[in-house]
Design goal:
Elements (H helix, E strand, L loop, with lengths): L1 H9 L17 H7 L6 E5 L11 H14 L2 E5 L25 E6 L12 E4 L2 H14 L5 H13 L2 H24 L12 E5 L1 H6 L6 H12 L4 E2 L13 E5 L4 H15 L1
Parallel strand pairs: 1-2, 2-3
Antiparallel strand pairs: 3-4, 5-7, 6-7
């Protein structure tokens, strides 16, 4: 993803921490095993793309303990913070005791305000880090276009609980439509707790239907037979074989478009 690509451009060494079990739980031992003498930072995405995983307060507290123990900085990507389902709670790592001074919080307007094409984001960090971030921004792109900044400010000032409630209800409806359709055609679907993606497994289909031998083939099969696009599971794993029987679907579409896609999936594979 974007995080990995940027790190590779800088020559950084990347170490991955697998999340365990069906709930994608965070294990302290796994976190500590990934830390070396050269480790500088930990990157966390919550709610997460592609799985919809929302880190719990307990898991973030575990991470906070590791940050303090090894004197590390955390970079948290929280751009899906308002997209939550079934009572899931978004907790910002920087809000926990003793880690604000070592946390860089990254977010943006693309998702919550449906302006993905603007590429307009923001970061919150302690003053010494924020100053360095400002220098980097100035060198890379100077600043975001001024009209977009004013529009974003207006959106921030108008943000209220009703908007967030309506946003969550809108995406919850889409989540249900997408997940139920995938389940009905034979996918194993862990319903996401946040964001607007579904990372669904099709291992059983690989044994019973042609065109599902792996994620590349399945992705092509869905396009050819149902005219529905998805992303290969291997795109999201350090080890590509870990995702070979998974596809990621995005349900951030207008209801008529999403319903049509679901109807086409049912017609082709139901």
């Amino acid at each position: 993803g974007y995080h990995r690509n940027i790190l590779e451009m800088t020559g950084a060494t990347i170490r991955y921490v697998p999340l365990g079990g069906p709930e994608s739980t965070v294990d302290r031992a796994a976190l500590e095993e990934a830390v070396t003498a050269d480790t500088k930072a930990v990157i966390v995405n919550t709610p997460a793309n592609p799985s919809g995983k929302v880190w719990t307060r307990a898991e973030l507290s575990t991470l906070a303990d590791v940050l303090r123990a090894y004197d590390l900085v955390a970079i948290t990507d929280e751009i899906y913070e308002y997209m939550l389902y079934d009572g899931a709670e978004h907790v910002s790592l920087a809000s926990l005791p003793g880690v604000h001074e070592r946390t860089i919080t990254i977010s943006g307007f693309s998702k919550a305000y449906n302006v993905t094409g603007w590429r307009l984001g923001y970061g919150v960090a302690p003053a010494p880090i924020a100053e360095k971030m400002g220098l980097m921004n100035d060198a890379l792109y100077i600043c975001a276009p001024r009209p977009l900044q004013h529009a974003a400010l207006a959106a921030f000032e108008d943000l209220d609980g009703d908007y967030v409630t309506e946003l969550q209800a809108k995406y919850a409806e889409r989540r249900t439509l997408m997940c139920e359709t995938l389940e009905d055609i034979g996918f194993d679907v862990p319903w996401p707790d946040g964001a607007y993606y579904v990372l669904a497994r099709f291992g059983d289909l690989a044994e019973t239907r042609a065109g599902f031998s792996d994620d590349d083939t399945a992705c092509e099969t869905l396009i050819q037979e149902a005219r529905v696009g998805s992303v290969t599971g291997r795109s999201f794993y350090e080890n590509p074989t870990d995702g070979q029987y998974q596809l990621r679907f995005c349900f951030a579409k207008e209801i008529p478009v999403l319903k049509q896609a679901c109807e086409q999936l049912r017609a082709a594979f139901g």
